[in-house]
Amino acid sequence: AQTVTQSQPEMSVQEAETVTLSCTYDTSESDYYLFWYKQPPSRQMILVIRQEAYKQQNATENRFSVNFQKAAKSFSLKISDSQLGDAAMYFCAYRSARSGGSNYKLTFGKGTLLTVNP
Amino acid sequence: ETGVTQSPTHLIKTRGQQVTLRCSSQSGHNTVSWYQQALGQGPQFIFQYYREEENGRGNFPPRFSGLQFPNYSSELNVNALELDDSALYLCASSLPSGAQETQYFGPGTRLLVL
Prior knowledge:
heterodimer, A: 118 residues, mainly beta, B: 114 residues, seven-stranded mixed sheet, 11 strands
């Protein structure tokens, strides 16, 4: 079974600065997808960024980028120029690329609570 | 906004009762997944529905059941509620694997069991 570990329960960053959230995962599969989701106090889980394991290039979405290290099974999220609206719980998630049944499920870490200080 | 809606937003039940939660998929999505998120935890996969049939299930007992309708909306039913069922229940819609793997979440239903 796959597991996802987020070792930082809480992080804080000053507005306009950069912060990196860590995520490691354990899997025996070679093809899979990784995601970062953001969950603000409003509760709605919002997709931040996704990475396909077969792609060597790290995904980027505006101020958000990842450092995907497949051999190390590491998938960190970097937020540049942090804004007050970035404050939320961030979840790292894994999904198998296999077809069928429970392979479609997302396996989540426990989350990192990000505080942005003005 | 993801286009996925859930109802109700909050619900209070007592132990032993039954509850039905509802989810409306994002337009064009025919796959719905349900997750349970206990306080301070990441979401846990309950099950997924595709073309009105259960298409995968996590480690949840049979008293957790679901339905998917021809318009792709879905229900989660929980019988014989227990105190530990208190959680945020999230649904997520997506296209089938091979077309679009990303799941888009609704705002959730907060269930409190007393």
